[in-house]
Amino acid sequence: MSDFLAFVDVGFRHIVALDAADHVLFLLALAAIYRGRDWRALLWVVTAFTVGHSLTLLLAVTTQLVLPREIVEFLIPVTIVLTGMENLLARQRAESGRTSGHRSVLAGIFGLVHGAGFADYLRSLFVDELALPLLGFNVGIECGQLVVLAVAFGCFWVGDRLLAVAPHRVVRGAPFQARLVGVSAVVTAVAVVWAWERWPG
After folding, report:
1. For the chain, first and last CA: distance in Å?
2. CA dist list (Å): 2 to 9, 132, 139
3. For residue 53, which of 43, 69, 115, 118 is within the disulfide window of CB 3.0 to 4.6 Å?
């Protein structure tokens, strides 16, 4: 049990560490279009992301799937850019509380990419056993993601309240729209820079 908890701790620390900023930024982009009342929709999206990156981790650490690291590192910010852009395109629909079901599909596909980003690190932890490190690491990653999402939604809630009392000349439109556009635009801009810096070749 102590070994399992050790791998949970490694996974948790890996998602909240500074060098995991791209994964945290993706979670922010993923969550930006949701409000507290949309938790069921977000749960489906996060579950799809979890399934995607768990599958890639399994394939990668068993060497069934080997991807060039520079390609994976480039594709991770690309997933953030695409998610941020999708947020901006769907902002009117999100205002009415309707989010598209295809976000779960996208999250699952993007999870495949992000799982490959963890693979090299996780592979280095293996000595003889596969199941225990893989399960523990995945549980730790999910716990870390839940913490990141909880903090993000706390910040979103505070931001929405502050925007609601801001002068009209500062905030045009609904506070939710302003927050959605602001968060999505920032994460997309940062991810574009990262993608440019990581361009393969």
Report:
1. 44
2. 10, 11, 14
3. 115
How many angstroms separate the Cα of 142 from the Cα of each of 50, 62, 92, 126, 176?
7, 21, 30, 20, 27
User: Given the structure tokens 């495949």, which residue do they identify?
Assistant: 112
Q: Which of 119, 135, 116, 145 is nearest to 16 (CA)?
A: 145
Mapping DSSP onto H, E and C, the string for 75-132 reads HHHHHHHHHHHHHHHCHHHHHCCCCCCHHHHHHHHHHHHHHHHHHHHHHCCCCCCCHH
pLDDT in tens, 148-167: 999 999 999 888 888 777 66
Structure tokens at 32: 């930006």
Tokens of 92: 């009117």
Q: Is 121 exposed, middle or buried (0-12, 13-18, 19+ CB in 10 A)?
A: middle
CB 104 within 8 A of CB 48: yes
- Dist CA 147 CA 164 (whole Å): 26
Full-model pTM: 0.86
Q: From CA 171, how far away is CA 194, in angstroms rounded?
A: 29
Q: Which of 82-91, 156-165, 168-177, 188-197 has the highest mean pLDDT?
A: 188-197
Domain boundaries of the chain, sorted by first residue: 2-197
Torsion of CA 41, 135, 17, 44, to 10 degrees: 0
